Amino acid sequence: MKIRTSLKTPCHRLLWLVCLLFLLALGGSAAEPEALLVSRFLPVKPLSRARRPAPIAVMLENTGAASLSARASLVLPAGVRLVGSKIAPAARLEPGESRTFSWMIEADAPGPCTLQLQVTAGDLPVTNATLALDFLPALEARSLAYLPDPVPAPTRVLVGAHHCPLWEADKPYMWANVLKHPERTPALGFYAQESPEVSDWETKWAVEHGISFFVYCWYRTSQGGAVKIQYGSAIHDALFKSRFAGRMKFTIMWENQSRGHAGVADERDLFTHLLPYWMTNYFQHPGYLKVDNQPLLFIYRPEYLVQDLGSVANVRQAFDRMRQVCRGAGFAGLHLLGEYRGLDPKHLQLMRELGLDYTFAYCWGIPNSPAPAQAIAAQLKSIRKTQELDILPQVVTVSQAWSGWRDEGSIWKLPPADFESLLRQARDFITTLPANQLGSRLLLLDNWNEWGEGHYLAPYREYGFGYLDAVRRVFSTAPADHVDLLPEDIGCGPYDTPYREQARVAEESRRLLARPATKPGKHPTGLVAWWAFDEASTNQVTLDYAGHRLGGRLHGAARTNGLNGAALVCDGGTVRVENHRLLSPADALTLSCWVKTAVANQDNRWFINRVVAGHTAAGYRLGVLGGRPCFEVPQTDWSHHLKASAPLPVGRWVHLAGTFDGRTMRLYVDGGEQGTLERPGPVNPSEAPLCLGGYEPGHPAHFTGLLDEVQLYDRALTPAEIRTLATDR
After folding, report:
1. Cα 152 to the chain's mean position, in Å?
2. How much of the chain exceeds pLDDT 90, in percent?
3. Where in the chain is the domain with CATH 2.60.120.200?
4. pTM for this structure?
């Protein structure tokens, strides 16, 4: 029997040591920590109210090789009580099995509290986890046909919030970082943004706290032809079809950072396709934000337009022509704002030469994981310095937090009280700006709903309406007292049904993946994982036939006939294998697989990948670069690409292998060595999932062809062993 404990504090470690010594004193064998896993300990609902029952659930998982008995109980603080049974639930868990226990609790008064979970495995008690909750004020639940009309909180300046529209029903993986940080769970749950009712909740919450417009991130998927967009459902399916569409304004930020896809092919593309699309769908829409009868267009990477249009002068000329087109459509012009969060005078001068009217920041990148006071000071310093440089006028943005999509780099967050302090100082600062500048009349908030990246203002589990109430107190002339409604207060929702269904399917998959699987055949020692894709064509998981339960889930992928059984069709679909310590061999590794393609000269296409944003100096990958097989084990960001000496053959099955022994990388094609690269040092461990078939789900850098018999070893196989794998079909 093993028990996995959090051991996060000295008290937890001391408790474990006491238990260990007690067992040894009795002459028994100490339980090895690592098999009873508390995989979830959370409230069932995103937010809870005082004097209203709140369900709490914990999932226990047996990751060991022997069955065990588990019992769980809650220790509640004063003022919080159990509703219903007070018997600690118990269950016997077989290897790989998980079980969910639940309780119903109720708080007498609003405010924060901490719940403690106690788990007993066999006769050994261990305090596994704590859960912080903040109960909202009590409110009698009622049933309404729809949301009550918003009651706007008027402000003396226009307050807007950047809006991140990534939360579509068919993209559950976007919530991955929120699963690591469940305190970020939105009040709407893991919602599908396509719903007009979701948009109405956002509008109601925003305008009732003084936010009068959203700046939606806007993504073009290809350039040079008719406009096609992605993540547009928040505007086109939700906002435009919502009942409260006329209650607040919107504008767009052109996310043109994906070169060759998200910008413009040339000036003709801009004026034949892109600008007419914006004019028809947005600028002329009654809800689009105009100041002095001029639409606002935010541009994420304005400097990229120099390459798109050929020169700085061409960009400036194009911007002038865009303003003229807007005047021809009845507007007084066009406000053009370019994103920049630095202080390099040369870059600001370039933005001025491009013909932009203003600079703004989408967010503020602050290094070294600062404390709140440091994060506030750094933002204000950048804002003031931008003004002192006096190169390009600014529209001020203030940021609430940052983590990155995979918690990379600096991580910080302002609690609501500190955010309110920042808001007051920013409000006072913009009053010093020239009255004829947009920045004196407008302030931007970062961000309404960047849940994965770690900056958000919309109501959520940890601080409820704390950030929005701070905005209302600082900017609105409305009374401080008001009622913040949740969907459950009036019988609305849920809005996360698609995610819950996908989670149900994923849980079924998880149970399948928990079963160890093996295949007959002799393989070299050190085999960590083996994905053969030989399951039934309808099966949405692929097992690990090395027996380590490292199977993965299919994302839009299919199977077809392969070498010996089935193979994975690599045409945009992928297999995602969740992070596990076994996937990060430290000292040496081997990747082995078979591929077949009819497409020559593929470039930047990957079929085994663990090198992704946030982990670009870690992991490993195997794919095709410049038409040739490529093996990478980075030591620094994107470093150490080893390419084969010849192109990847087409029209037949090809065996590929990459080995690394702690010093030298070697790449093999059909059993023969085709390249070496010196790289002394260990493999940098990664926390990213392993992706088979592509860079990651939904990414264009996917291999086109078939993939079969993928193997990972925790040592460098010898040339003779590689030849055997290449000839053993």
Report:
1. 32
2. 78
3. 516-727
4. 0.79
